[in-house]
Request: fold
Amino acid sequence: MTSTLRTDVLRIEGTRDPLGGTLPILHGISRLTGAGVGVDDEMRRNLAYGIPHTLLPYTRQAGYDRVRAERELPSVVLENETLTATFLPSLGGRLWSLVHRPSGRELLHRNRTFQPANLALRDAWLAGGVEWNLGTTGHWPLTCEPLHAARLTAPDGTPGLRMYAFERLRRLTLRLDTWLPAGSPVLYVHITVHNPAPTETPVYWWSNIAVPEHRDVRVLGPADHAFHCDYVSDLRRVEFPEVAGSDRSYPGRVERAADYFLDIPDGERRWIAALDGTGSGLVQTSTGRLRGRKLFCWGTATGGKHWQEWLSGPDSAYLEIQAGLARTQLEHLPMPPGATWSWTEAYGLLQVDPEAVHGSWQAATAAAGAALDALVPARRLELAEAFAPEFGAPDELLAEGGGWAALEIEAGALPDSPLLCFGSPTAAQEPWRQLLKSGTLPVCDPPAEPVTGAHWRVLLEEGADDWHALYQLGLLRLADGEPEAARSAFERSIEAQPSPWALRALAFLATDPPQAAHLMAQAHQLRPDLLELTIEVLEALLRADQADQVLALIEELPPAHRAHGRIRLAEANAAHASGDDDRVRRLLAEGIQVDNMREGEISLDTLWLAVHPGQPVPPHYDFRMAGD
Reply:
């Protein structure tokens, strides 16, 4: 029996990598739904708790398109006699593939393409595999960022892979240790989250597992109720799997996109599985801290089908089974200062009598639970949890992430540890290193990438006296939920020297749409070449009902910018607002492809229906998740 770890290269058809933007994300997240029937007091508290004021210090990740060529992505492969697990450290440490070797079966939805799309907190996201999400509700900020990765060896010789990062929104450290013991039928993933701050921090975690979707695939878990979210109505507790006369445990037969968070009773083993017509498929289980389980489906309506093709190509339908710290993804949990939380997950092939799987819900879940106990008894998972600390300091570094953790170690805000070799700061962190050394933040244009944290704010509150330092101080105050104090810093920044960055921030804080549009237009005059700023300016003008100004600005743009999907969409919306629907129909006929169409966005189908009343929306313009 063997267990090995090797580095490799994943060859795949794909577009170019998403790029980090210049403009920081000034908004936070909004609560997606209210609390309806059956939501208890604990969940209500968690729903209201921890919603971030902004997504600072992060910038958007975009710049990708849909033009593909052969790509090579660095990978790390763990393998034993039963499973081959392929990880992509450069893409948030995603588990890209899990193959059951005796049968040759891929247990995950393994995307045939590398195609970013706008579903994550920072925009760029990939469908497929297992994604690790830490921070706040949504696909996490590092989903398309490199993690640090290292080779491990346990005292008994078992090889392991450690991937780790510093998540800058919540200022938490993340460590994922994964291993495949010789002879094991499951992959183990031990996750450790540490809060180094002297204050309580809201925490969110979900492991998002994509698996193939077919009409005969049934999702099972030990619950007979679920919390249902369909993006248009309040979160509510419902009986499961029968909801509104339909069995929702078969996602390939459900018309509309929806979330079902299984309400697993206390004392029940935590697991979820997606099993096909033969009674086999992926199962995920964990130790008790990982409390929640969820089923997500895109739905079989035109919009849901289009989304799956948009993300993975034709004939590649998938669903997601997920596992999280809270009962739903709309909640955050309070993590005490200095606390460390850990748990262990296991992934493998579950095989169950198909007649039981596709019989009554009670028979199906009982049979699957018994098969899980045979595959990986709860005691074995506890032993794996106890084994995880056997992996000590890394043997060999395999991949490097960013330099932000190293900067925080230099600042004394993050403890250094031999278990997590964060390397050295890079050029992106150099302005902040200068602030540490000299007490003065050097002027940078474009500005230095933002930071968050009380220690940085103290330094700037004491010494900010130029436009750049005042702008960064405004961002820190905004991240701390102090908009008026932030406004003061941005105004002082503009008094010192007008910049598009502070003007944009003031526009974000403006409550009057015409005022916001005016400030954005001023910002654009200072940087007319910056495409991401141009897109925001056009959106601000449209919100202010200034369609003529939108069309005039577009006329002045270079051809490459004018051809961009977001610019063409803005042109069509402005033409419609101006009463020129012939121009809208022409643009739609020529084609408007918005490469970063946002999940839940209905701009294209709304525009189509506005100028083609009574006509069905063409599939390539239909991104509706809530049905027709």
